[in-house]
Design goal:
Helix content is about 50%, strand content about 10%. It is α/β, with parallel strands linked by helices. An eight-stranded parallel β-sheet has the order 1-2-3-4-5-6-7-8.
Length: about 400
C-alpha cells in the first residue's frame, strides 16, 4: 500500500469514529484509543486503566503517543491539513520518517505544532544532533522549547551551527541545561549572525566567565533579540562589564532578566556603563543578587541621568534601600511617572514618631496650619500630595 492509499484508510477510520454511536459523539482522540486497542489486541481498554502503579514503560509511551496524536489531529482539523498515517503511528518514537509521504506545507505546519515543545526529555547529545538537522530544513516552526534536556557544550555547537543566519525561529528555550564556557562561546557566535530569534531563554545554565563574555559579544552586534533570560547563571563583575558594553551598542533588547546571579555593587556599576546610554531596554530584573543600597542608588542614578532611557520597570525587590533612594526615585518619577521600581525598605526609612510634632512646630513658626499647607499643594483637590512636592514645599519655606 503506497502512502496516499494508507492515508485514505486513516481518514476513513477517523470519519467512521466521528459518526454518532449510541446517540453520543466520541471525544477527540477516541480514534486514537481504538487504534491503540487494535494494536494491543485488547477490547475495553481505556485511558483510565493506564493510571496505575503497575504502569509499564510501554504503557507510558502509548499514553504519550495518544496525547500527541490527539494534538496532531486537532492541528490538522484546525488548519485544514490531511493527517498522515505514519505520523499517527510513530509519534513519540525516536524516528519519524516522512520520506515520500507528501506532507505538504499545511501538513508540515500541523506537525510543527506537535513537535515545538520537547522540554524535559533528556535528549542529550544525540537529540541535539537530530534537532539541529531538523532546524536546517525548517520553514514552519517558529518557537521551540528544549528546556531540561541535559544539553552540554557539545550540544551547543549543534544548535549554533544550525541557527547561524537562521531567520525562521523566533523563540528558543534552552533553559535548565548544562551550557558552560564553550557552550556560551558557541551561542555567542550564533547570536552574532542570527537574524530571527527574538526571545532567548538561557536561564538555569552554567554561563560565567569566558562563556558569558562571549555570549555578550554576540549580543553586542545582534539586531533582532528582544528578550534575554539569564537568571540562575554565574554573571559577576567581568561578565557584567561585557554586558554593559553590549548594552551600549545593542538597539533591540527590551527585556533583560539577570535574577539570581552574582551581581554585586561593583558589578552593577559596570553594567550601568551600558545603561547610561542605552535607549531601548524597558525591563531589567536584578532581584536575588548580592546588591546593597549603594548598588541600587548607582543603578537608579544611571537610569535617571540618561534622558533617552526607555527603562520603565526595575526589579530589585530583594534590595533594602535607604531614604536617599526613595527621594531620588521620587525625583525620577517627576519626569517619568510610569517608572516602576520594586524594592524593599530599611527600617531606618520609617519616620520617627516625633516627626509630626517637629513638622507642626515648623509650620507654627511660620503662622501656618497643616491644613493650609496641604491645601496649597493640592490645588486640584485630589486629596493626595506626592513626597517630592511635599519636600520641595518644605525646602522653599526654609529659604
Amino acid at each position: 500500500m503506497d502512502p496516499c492509499e494508507e492515508d485514505n484508510v486513516v481518514l476513513q477510520l477517523i470519519e467512521e469514529e466521528q459518526q454518532p454511536c449510541d446517540q453520543s459523539v466520541p471525544p477527540m482522540g477516541s480514534q486514537d484509543q481504538m487504534e491503540d486497542k487494535s494494536t494491543q489486541g485488547q477490547e475495553g481498554d481505556s485511558g483510565a486503566e493506564w493510571d496505575t502503579d503497575l504502569e509499564t514503560d510501554n504503557d507510558t509511551n502509548q499514553r504519550q503517543r495518544l496525547s500527541q496524536a490527539e494534538l496532531y489531529l486537532q492541528a490538522c482539523q484546525r488548519i485544514g491539513a490531511i493527517p498522515v498515517s505514519s505520523v499517527l503511528r510513530h509519534l513519540g518514537e525516536a524516528d519519524l520518517n516522512l520520506n515520500h509521504y507528501g506532507v505538504g506545507p499545511l501538513g508540515a505546519k500541523a506537525l510543527s505544532i506537535v513537535l515545538q515543545n520537547l522540554s524535559n526529555n533528556q535528549l542529550g547529545l544525540d537529540g541535539a544532533d537530530i534537532i539541529s538537522k531538523m532546524l536546517l530544513d525548517n520553514y514552519y516552526i517558529k518557537s521551540i522549547k528544549l528546556s531540561g534536556n541535559d544539553f552540554d557544550d557539545s550540544a551547543a555547537k549543534y544548535f549554533a551551527d544550525a541557527l547561524k543566519g537562521d531567520y525562521v525561529i523566533k523563540e528558543l528555550d534552552l533553559s535548565h541545561n548544562r551550557f558552560c564556557d564553550a557552550g556560551g562561546a558557541q551561542l555567542g557566535q550564533m547570536l552574532a549572525t542570527n537574524v530571527g530569534i527574538e526571545v532567548l531563554n538561557l536561564s538555569w545554565n552554567h554561563l560565567r566567565m569566558s562563556g558569558a563574555v562571549a555570549l555578550c559579544a554576540g549580543l553586542k552586534v545582534n539586531s533582532t533579540l528582544k528578550q534575554l533570560q539569564l537568571s540562575w547563571n554565574g554573571f559577576s563583575r567581568a561578565e557584567s562589564e561585557s554586558l554593559g558594553q553590549a548594552l551600549r551598542e545593542n538597539s533591540t533588547l527590551v527585556v533583560l532578566d539577570l535574577r539570581s546571579n552574582r551581581i554585586d555593587d561593583q558589578a552593577v556599576t559596570l553594567l550601568c556603563q551600558g545603561l547610561a546610554t542605552n535607549d531601548t531596554l524597558r525591563v531589567l530584573k536584578l532581584s536575588h543578587n548580592p546588591l546593597t543600597n549603594i548598588g541600587a542608588l548607582t543603578l537608579l542614578k544611571a537610569v535617571k541621568n540618561n534622558t533617552k532611557s526607555a527603562v520603565e520597570e526595575i526589579d530589585i525587590s530583594t534590595v533594602f534601600v535607604c531614604e536617599a533612594f526613595v527621594e531620588l526615585l521620587d525625583e525620577a518619577r517627576q519626569r517619568r511617572p510610569a517608572l516602576n521600581v520594586r524594592y524593599s525598605v530599611m527600617s531606618s526609612v520609617t519616620r520617627n514618631i516625633s516627626a509630626l510634632q517637629i513638622f507642626q512646630k515648623f509650620l507654627e513658626d511660620r503662622n501656618e496650619t497643616i491644613l493650609d499647607f496641604f491645601q496649597a499643594l493640592d490645588k486640584e483637590g485630589m486629596m493626595k500630595v506626592s513626597t517630592y512636592a511635599f519636600r520641595k514645599a518644605v525646602k522653599v519655606r526654609l529659604h
